[in-house]
Amino acid sequence: MYPYSRQLNLLHFIIHLHANDASLLDILTDDFIYRPQNKNDFIRSEFHFYILVEDDDREICKPTGDFSYAYDFEANLLHLKYLSGAINIDIDYAKRSVFAVIGRSTLSCGAALGNWILTIPLAEFLKEYGLYFIHAACLEYEGKSVLFAGKSGFGKTTISLGLMKKGWNLISDDEAFLFEKVDYYAVGGPEKAKISYKTWQKFADILGETDAFPNKRTINLSTLFSDKMREFGKVHSLCLIRKGSENHINRLKPIDAFQRLFSLAFLNSNPESTRSNFEFLANLCRNCYCYELENNLDFDSLHTLLINEMFVYPSRPVC
Amino acid sequence: MSAHKRADEIEWKMFDDESLLLNVQTGFYFRLNVVGSYIWSNLDGNRNDDEIIHLVADAFDTTSEQASKDYRAFISTLSEEKLILNV
């Protein structure tokens, strides 16, 4: 039933992918190279993902926000449904397994499939181990790490590349897992990033010259910036980013940061893990400096602004 | 004497004097201001409505009439959103 399989490593976990379609595994694994274990790491758990691709008569699908979920208390299963049922995913918490049935037309959704089938279920499992997923870049400067949280397209990767040029180190450019051990820490997620031609041009001195290309191109951050990759960092500040015409930073009250972060980070899930996620994010906002950051991609001034505001002279929250 | 208590499926966090409430079954969340947070924190089922109204009047230096009006309007909203139960 599942003739093809692939294994992914993430921190202390092993993820086994089983599918009836090799091209699906290529899609899932191409965009998601997770940080491998160190040689001496013990394995805390293994997860199995079983994915059936079925022929369907739909038109080619594009990713949309068409999503619903339901939690089955008796079976301890979370059902996720995307694209009007073209993708059905069951997360079995007890078996640490995921069962997905997807229409072949959805293979055209590309990287979104990785998010729906792999990242979201994995984030559900890892909450049990005290690891909380966040859609954020994380950069470290002189031992202090800053989370830059924002929706896709708000410039997380661009900020990451820009600050690395100014001497910052990279923990994650888009997705990270957070955990608490007295303080709060972020650990890197995928080591690949997707960038547009426009962004590429901005960083051609690092990435090299290239001809124009459509859509986005994948770059392997760990290869390009091997000396700037960090496995994890202690979270000092949280920045909620938005696009703007100037570099500007405002300190936020923890509840304002929490409300905004929650709407970004919340994953619909079973009630117990929703509770723990809520608790975790609230405590994170209470225990780090929270800001709203508008940036215009002038990284010289952004670097100075961040250092002065966050590390040297933190201001009071704006009420 | 009527009384109300917070529904079990509601998780809440207080930050200074404001709160964020989350219905863990639906994913909907609500933000309460300082007065709402004060009332919410007292909706433990051990105090009836009149006792909480007196507490609100004392804490916010207002009349019992005004506190009662604000309290009942707030309770009505919480009930509509199924955030509280009648005890």
Structure description:
The complex is a heterodimer of chains A (319) and B (87). Chain A is of the alpha+beta class. Helix content of chain A is 29%, strand content 35%. Chain A has 2 domains: 4-129, no CATH class; 133-312, Rossmann fold. Chain A has helices spanning 22-30, 111-127, 156-165, 197-202, 204-207, 221-224, 254-265, 271-287, 299-312, and strands at 4-10, 13-19, 45-54, 67-72, 77-82, 87-92, 97-103, 132-134, 136-141, 144-149, 169-172, 176-181, 183-188, 192-196, 216-220, 232-243, 248-251, 289-295. In chain A, the strands form 3 sheets. In chain A, strands 8, 9, 10, 11, 12, 13, 16, 17 and 18 form a 9-stranded mixed β-sheet that branches. In chain A, strands 1-2-3-7-6-5-4 form a 7-stranded mixed β-sheet, with helices on one face. The model of chain A has no long low-confidence stretch (mean pLDDT 89). Chain B has a single domain (7-86), classed as Orthogonal Bundle (Arc Repressor Mutant, subunit A). In chain B, 43% of the residues lie in helices and 25% in strands. The A-B interface holds A 71, 253-255, 258-259, 262, 266, 268, 271, 274-275, 278-279, 282, 285-286 and B 9, 11, 13, 15-16, 18-20, 22, 24-25, 27, 29, 31.
